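Quick one: sequence plus 2-acetamido-2-deoxy-beta-D-glucopyranose SMILES, need structure tokens.
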Amino acid sequence: MANFMLIIAMNIIFAFFVVLAHEPSPLQDFCVADFNSTVMVNGFACLDPKQVTADHFLFRGLNIPGNTSNPLGSFVNRPTVFEIPGLNTLGISTVRVDYAPGGVVPPHRHPRASEILTVLEGTVFVGFVTSDPENRLVSKTLDKGDVFVIPFGLIHFQQNVGQGNAVTMAFLSSQNPGVIAIANTVFESKPEIDDRVLAKAFRVDKSFVHQLQAPHH
Ligand SMILES: *[C@@H]1O[C@H](CO)[C@@H](O)[C@H](O)[C@H]1NC(C)=O
Ligand SMILES: *[C@@H]1O[C@H](CO)[C@@H](O)[C@H](O)[C@H]1NC(C)=O
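Reply:
Sure thing.
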């Protein structure tokens, strides 16, 4: 009996997470985000449709190359529901990435989205890694016009492996996909994760951990 109750409880918990893990289907034409509303919902409350204008669905400037003069050699322009309130509840958004030669988007994951990425310019090496225990790298070198899919939540990366600059556009299955940059979360958390934890976890000595945490030392 106790086991039976446990199974029921776990099913309820599981169903709860499934429900929260995906944005709901629209029940009306649109639900433009009302950032002023104090109502707490999964996403944002709807602006009065009578106040909605075309500008709520508009974002300009994704044709403009980003500045890649930075240590990663890449620039991410990622308008989400915060920049396009009309995306609220719709479960989509877009991202442009510019890459200098060798430029990289370091390993990261989107906690709330799958991604479909296409190369507009250049040659880009892209890969994702399957979850434990397999941890298989699934990767491809993409040329202009090639499209690659990054499944929901998996760790992935991109690098410009061509001679010139590269540009990719991607679409994500969330109005607010989120980004978990692996190195930032593990080595640059605030406060830092104890170096004894990281040294043991990565089987390196503490001085190497401190090197990786260098921006804060
Ligand atoms: C929030 O309210 C202020 C003041 O009424 C208004 O100026 C602003 O446009 C509102 N913002 C949004 C996103 O609705
Ligand atoms: C690009 O960023 C670098 C580093 O911040 C800066 O020095 C440079 O002026 C920027 N270039 C443009 C065109 O904004």
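The helical segments are 2-21, 182-187, 195-202, 206-212. The chain has a mean pLDDT of 91.
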